[in-house]
Design brief:
It is a single chain. The chain is mostly beta strands. The chain has a single domain, classed as Jelly Rolls (Sandwich), CATH 2.60.120. It is built from one helix and eight strands. The strands form three sheets. A four-stranded antiparallel β-sheet has the order 3-8-5-6, with no helix packed on it. The protein is globular and about 40 Å long. The N and C termini lie far apart (44 Å).
Length: 102
Amino acid sequence: MRISLDDRVRDQVERAKESPSGRSAESVYGGHDNVLRQTLVALRAGASLAEHESPGEATLLVLRGRVRLNSGDTSSEGTTGDLLVVPSARHSLDAVRTPPSC
């Protein structure tokens, strides 16, 4: 099985831009009944995923842009190509707006 993440990212980014919530997601592998589930999430700049329970052992790979992963009093920022470890506690995710270039 081969999946083109570039194609799926483009599709999800377009859906996020059109969505009132500013986000879009799809499972690209596995699902709720599987041990491993990989989900592609697109967030429009400034959009967020509200605080939610940890899915268990998980990581977040930033494919494009910049995000902030928040849990309690701690946060981690990631940019394109970064791999963040999702905390095993309640957490939220923000798509960070990048300042305009001079």
